[in-house]
Amino acid sequence: MTAINAIAEEGPIAEAEALNDRLAGLDLAGRLSLVSGLGGRVVFTTSLGIEDQVITAEIGTHRLPIDIATLQTGRLFAETLSLIEETESQYDIHIHRFEPEKADIDAYAAQYGLNGFYESVEARHACCGVRKLKPLARALEGAAIWITGLRRGQSANRAETPFAEYDAERHLLKVNPLADWDLEAIKAFVSTNGVPVNPLHQRGYPSIGCEPCTRAIKPGEPERAGRWWWEQDETRECGLHVAEEAAAIAAQ
């Protein structure tokens, strides 16, 4: 980063830090309402997991001006696809679907094989890049604020998740309104408010991604242990929330 770029980013970083402090004292509805009124396009990206369903429920219930998008990777569970339509119907909302480009899928399959992600970390990251990161870039085009369902309790890698931060690679504010919620609080909200959730959660899947890359967890395992379970790195991520991965997509 050049000195000029560093100076230019001081403003957004300070803005994110101030917003982080403001969000800390609010409940979820208050956090989302505050963020939706800051100006500019606000996008919430949902994987239809239980955390994201809580955020969707608040957006729909309070009719907040927040666009909701999901990455329809082409490898999702049938239960996840059904939940998209159920959620739209219950809250009278539209969830925008962003799919990978066929040319990218074909190029990936030609190089690694359709299920080549099992063979190496490089191949798995390449698959996530094609099916998730590039569609995410399209979902966030023109956005000033990106809302996610990240929580500190999901994994050690996410333990320091703030309520708000500046995403320097995407040049926007990233807001994590559930950062301080634990899984029990999430489940209580869902039960009290009749929020529709993925039936796979009841079958041992606390974190749900693409079907070939997700398994049920064993008793005592961390919430995200079932994601890319064949890899040994305990901090493994798909790249959506990893700065280096976002920068690589931006360069393309």
Automatic annotation (TrEMBL):
<comment type="function">
    <text>Catalyzes the formation of sulfite from adenosine 5'-phosphosulfate (APS) using thioredoxin as an electron donor.</text>
</comment>
<feature type="binding site">
    <location>
        <position position="213"/>
    </location>
    <ligand>
        <name>[4Fe-4S] cluster</name>
    </ligand>
</feature>
<feature type="binding site">
    <location>
        <position position="127"/>
    </location>
    <ligand>
        <name>[4Fe-4S] cluster</name>
    </ligand>
</feature>
<dbReference type="GO" id="GO:0005737">
    <property type="term" value="C:cytoplasm"/>
</dbReference>
<keyword id="KW-0408">Iron</keyword>
<dbReference type="InterPro" id="IPR014729">
    <property type="entry name" value="Rossmann-like_a/b/a_fold"/>
</dbReference>
<feature type="binding site">
    <location>
        <position position="210"/>
    </location>
    <ligand>
        <name>[4Fe-4S] cluster</name>
    </ligand>
</feature>
<keyword id="KW-0479">Metal-binding</keyword>
<keyword id="KW-0411">Iron-sulfur</keyword>
<dbReference type="GO" id="GO:0070814">
    <property type="term" value="P:hydrogen sulfide biosynthetic process"/>
</dbReference>
<dbReference type="InterPro" id="IPR002500">
    <property type="entry name" value="PAPS_reduct_dom"/>
</dbReference>
<dbReference type="InterPro" id="IPR011798">
    <property type="entry name" value="APS_reductase"/>
</dbReference>
<comment type="pathway">
    <text>Sulfur metabolism; hydrogen sulfide biosynthesis; sulfite from sulfate.</text>
</comment>
<keyword id="KW-0963">Cytoplasm</keyword>
<feature type="binding site">
    <location>
        <position position="128"/>
    </location>
    <ligand>
        <name>[4Fe-4S] cluster</name>
    </ligand>
</feature>
<dbReference type="GO" id="GO:0046872">
    <property type="term" value="F:metal ion binding"/>
</dbReference>
<dbReference type="GO" id="GO:0019379">
    <property type="term" value="P:sulfate assimilation, phosphoadenylyl sulfate reduction by phosphoadenylyl-sulfate reductase (thioredoxin)"/>
</dbReference>
<dbReference type="Pfam" id="PF01507">
    <property type="entry name" value="PAPS_reduct"/>
</dbReference>
<protein>
    <recommendedName>
        <fullName>Adenosine 5'-phosphosulfate reductase</fullName>
        <ecNumber>1.8.4.10</ecNumber>
    </recommendedName>
</protein>
<feature type="active site" description="Nucleophile; cysteine thiosulfonate intermediate">
    <location>
        <position position="238"/>
    </location>
</feature>
<dbReference type="GO" id="GO:0043866">
    <property type="term" value="F:adenylyl-sulfate reductase (thioredoxin) activity"/>
</dbReference>
<dbReference type="GO" id="GO:0051539">
    <property type="term" value="F:4 iron, 4 sulfur cluster binding"/>
</dbReference>
<comment type="similarity">
    <text>Belongs to the PAPS reductase family. CysH subfamily.</text>
</comment>
<dbReference type="GO" id="GO:0019344">
    <property type="term" value="P:cysteine biosynthetic process"/>
</dbReference>
<feature type="domain" description="Phosphoadenosine phosphosulphate reductase">
    <location>
        <begin position="42"/>
        <end position="216"/>
    </location>
</feature>
<keyword id="KW-0560">Oxidoreductase</keyword>
<dbReference type="InterPro" id="IPR004511">
    <property type="entry name" value="PAPS/APS_Rdtase"/>
</dbReference>
<dbReference type="GO" id="GO:0004604">
    <property type="term" value="F:phosphoadenylyl-sulfate reductase (thioredoxin) activity"/>
</dbReference>
